[in-house]
Write a structure and sequence with these properties.
Layout (H helix, E strand, L loop, with lengths): L1 H14 L7 H10 L2 H13 L4 E2 L4 E9 L2 E8 L10 H21 L2 H10 L2 E8 L4 E7 L1 H8 L1
Parallel strand pairs: 3-4
Antiparallel strand pairs: 1-2, 2-3, 4-5
């Protein structure tokens, strides 16, 4: 996910017509975007790289934006050898771990934190198995990022 964020910064710098690689200037331009434009840009740039293999069992399969939110659809391969026999007993544990990872990643990136806390960006995560059966979902919003700051 971090590499996706960095690639978005690079693509936005190219699209913004910047002549230098001033990362701070780029971050300020991103922060100045409307929330709807930012959500669409983030979703479109990420969706252009789908499917994105996150690890041995997790793949981002779809990304869409709607108003002030970006929805990430991810599949988990429950048939992978590291998952065999674990999902049935630890599904709540996996949801907690995934929420913890996703929220820490996005809330600790300066410009994403700004968009979530100050502009109301909401990131939605939907997990399915490889047969598209729903497993769990959650959102990362302002309250989640504020709790991580404390």
């Amino acid at each position: 996910m971090k590499s996706l964020i960095l690639s978005m910064l690079l693509l936005l710098s190219l699209n913004a017509g910047m002549n230098n690689n001033n990362e701070e200037e780029l971050k300020e331009k991103i922060k100045a975007m409307s929330i709807e434009k930012f959500a669409r840009t983030l979703a479109n740039k990420t969706a252009s790289a789908v499917p994105i293999k996150i690890d041995a069992i997790t793949t981002v399969t779809k990304v869409v934006a709607l108003e002030n939110s970006v929805s990430y659809f991810k599949s988990i391969d429950l048939n992978h050898e590291i998952m065999k026999g674990k999902w049935e007993n630890k599904s709540e544990y996996f949801k907690t771990v995934m929420f913890d990872q996703d929220s820490k990643i996005v809330c600790r990136v300066d410009f994403l934190n700004h968009m979530i806390v100050n502009k109301g960006l909401v990131l939605k995560y939907y997990y399915t198995d490889t047969e598209h059966r729903p497993l769990f979902s959650y959102t990362v919003n302002k309250q989640d990022c504020l709790e991580l700051e404390n």
